[in-house]
Automatic annotation (TrEMBL):
<dbReference type="InterPro" id="IPR051531">
    <property type="entry name" value="N-acetyltransferase"/>
</dbReference>
<dbReference type="Pfam" id="PF13302">
    <property type="entry name" value="Acetyltransf_3"/>
</dbReference>
<protein>
    <submittedName>
        <fullName>Ribosomal-protein-alanine N-acetyltransferase</fullName>
    </submittedName>
</protein>
<dbReference type="InterPro" id="IPR016181">
    <property type="entry name" value="Acyl_CoA_acyltransferase"/>
</dbReference>
<dbReference type="GO" id="GO:0016747">
    <property type="term" value="F:acyltransferase activity, transferring groups other than amino-acyl groups"/>
</dbReference>
<dbReference type="InterPro" id="IPR000182">
    <property type="entry name" value="GNAT_dom"/>
</dbReference>
<keyword id="KW-0808">Transferase</keyword>
<feature type="domain" description="N-acetyltransferase">
    <location>
        <begin position="8"/>
        <end position="177"/>
    </location>
</feature>
Length: 183
């Protein structure tokens, strides 16, 4: 399953994506607001989990490449939330883009394709996004996508250790009806 935008292709993972994804995941700026991902997990387990999620559900955090030159730039996609919280069950949208490609509008462009797929093809009633409060770049993308933030829904991420500076998260939501009215 591939999603195509004006400039990007969101596609299933290939073995050739493992090394570039591990490099992205080793960049401290990219991972500033994420729990560090060990190189071995970036090369194997993380991507294998996406492949398995795709096989089980028909969607995942896809590999993203530029159409013009086929360069791998990161990952954007949808995934079922894998922990219990007040907003689960839910499907989350997310992205991880290599730093050289920041500020070019790739994350919102790819995310819009994911939203369309999620609402039109998967018939989801809602898609959520989460991040830490200080991740202003991702929060701007969430806002550009039309997602709504309610400070009363901030939460402690259950998979982040207590006391860790990344434990507190903000929740953004987008309902299918809201998305359809704006698109």
């Amino acid at each position: 399953m591939n999603l195509i935008t004006k400039r990007l292709q969101l596609r299933e993972w290939r073995d050739a994506d493992r090394e570039p994804f591990a490099e992205i995941s080793a960049d401290p700026a990219v991972m500033e607001f994420l729990i560090p991902l060990q190189r071995e997990k970036a090369l194997g387990e993380w991507i294998d989990n996406q492949i398995n999620h795709m096989q089980a559900h028909g969607f995942c955090f896809w590999a993203v490449e530029r159409k013009e030159d086929g360069i791998f730039i990161g990952t954007v996609g949808l995934r079922k939330v894998g922990y219990e919280a007040f907003f689960t069950p839910a499907v989350e949208i997310g992205w991880r883009i290599a730093r050289p490609f920041w500020g070019l509008g790739y994350a919102p462009e790819a995310a819009q394709a994911c939203l369309q797929f999620g609402f039109d093809t998967l018939n989801l009633s809602e898609i959520i996004a989460i991040t830490v409060p200080s991740n202003l770049k991702s929060r701007r993308v969430m806002s550009k996508l039309g997602m709504a933030y309610n400070p009363n829904e901030d939460f402690d991420h259950p998979l982040v250790p207590k006391g860790h500076y990344l434990r507190r998260h903000v929740l953004y939501r987008l309902l299918r009806d809201q998305w359809q009215n704006n698109n």
